[in-house]
Amino acid sequence: MQTATISRLSPRAVPATTFAAAPKHEASCTNCNLRELCLPKQIVDSDMARVEQIVFARRRLKRGDSLFKAGDPFYALYAIRSGFLKTTVLNADGREQVTGFQMGGELLGLDGIGSGRYNGNAVALEDSEACVLPFALIEELGREVPAIQRNLHSVLSREIVRDHGVMMLLGSMRAEERLATFLLNLSKRFMRRGYSSSDFHLRMTREEIGSYLGLKLETVSRLFSSFQKDGVIEVQQKHVRIHDIAGLERMLGPKR
pTM of the entire structure? Predict the structure, then answer.
């Protein structure tokens, strides 16, 4: 990153730990294979150099490392470059509730924009890497490059839709519908990234899936076994092969 770009950030905009944890990388957004997922589709080549200034650095995480924790001051959004993470919050009784699973090309930290602090925790489920996007730069360049601002609004809109979907998932679906929806969602997300939509590895545990879906561990395990017995999927520990995507879709019943 150019020195002039860094100097535009106030001392409070990016904490000193960000510099130490994530030295500026050499690769650019231009040759990143997740470019189409992260960057505005309307961006023109003349603005690309300015857009790349947003990517301040990268954070490398080992499995179990935290990208940020609930209550930490909000400084940046994070775009997952590789790996898999989960987001969690603590319930009123102190239990951890999984609120989402994120993979390459997805943004984390949006919940901190309003309050100035991150609302939940983001933890790596495997060795991962995330691009650090200081929000001060996003706001500044968003005023200069409208496509950036529109893209941020689009991401925020998708988050609202996702939250509504989770509410419906937990509030009105039967247990088998919840797991079928979860597997179909993963299938579509893997396919969008150029991976197999029917053959993938689950990075999360059955217990974490249950926490996200509002199901007990025993129920999740029973449903995986039931789906396999019916020939819809094949499961070997964390490896899942979907044999009948239409069968999963039929479990959801009529469109709601």
Answer: 0.80
